[in-house]
Every structure is written in C-alpha cells, then in structure tokens.
Amino acid sequence: MPEDKKIFTLKRIGLIALMTALIGTGAYVTAHEFNDGVITPAVIGSVFLGMAFPNLLIAGMMRLFRVHVGKVFLLIAAICIVIGIVLIAI
User: Fold this and answer.
1) What confidence tens digit (pLDDT) does each residue in 30-84 have?
2) Which end of the chain is more exposed for a tag (fewer CB within 10 A), N or C?
3) What share of the chain is helix, strand, coil (3-state, %, to 5)?
C-alpha cells in the first residue's frame, strides 16, 4: 500500500487536530468574552461541539476529492462531538 493511500497517518491526524485546536481556541476566547469570564463544563462542551462543525463541513467536501482524508476529518469531529456531549451532560 503506497504511503499516500494510508488513511490514518500521524501527519494527517496531527495537522487536522491542530486546525481543530485553533478553531477551539477562537471559540473559547469568544465564549470567555461573552460570558464575562464564567466558563462552565457546559460552555466547554459547546466549544467542543463548535469545533466539530467545521470538520463535518470539510469532511463533506473532501468526499468529492479525497475520501481518505475526509475520514480523518470525520474521526476528529466524532471525538469532539463525544467530548462535547459528555461535558454538556455533566
């Protein structure tokens, strides 16, 4: 199997996780400003759900061009959704 056909490489997962973390940082700063510095587990859960949405949109577009990269976006989105739901339910 050639290197470019492998789905879950550390480089792909790392770069997509970095992009997701940057989105999460922006969402966290926005939540911090609008909530007057009060951050609860539900707010952090909402930030994680907000981190998942761009990944879902990008994964949908990647299905047209590079399906194997879209699967990595879906994996990261699923992780963010699960963490977000758990934090909101607490």
Assistant:
1) 999 998 888 999 999 999 999 999 999 998 888 888 878 888 899 999 999 999 9
2) N
3) 85, 0, 15
Alpha carbon 48 to its chain centroid, in Å, reads 7
Radius of gyration of the chain (CA): 15
DSSP 8-state class, residue 58: H
Query: Has residue 1 got a pLDDT over 50?
Result: no
CA distance 16 to 29: 20
Helices within the chain (DSSP H only): 10-34, 41-65, 67-89
**Amino acid, single-letter form, for residue 44:** I
Cα–Cα distance measured from residue 19 to residue 10, given in angstroms and rounded to the nearest whole number: 14
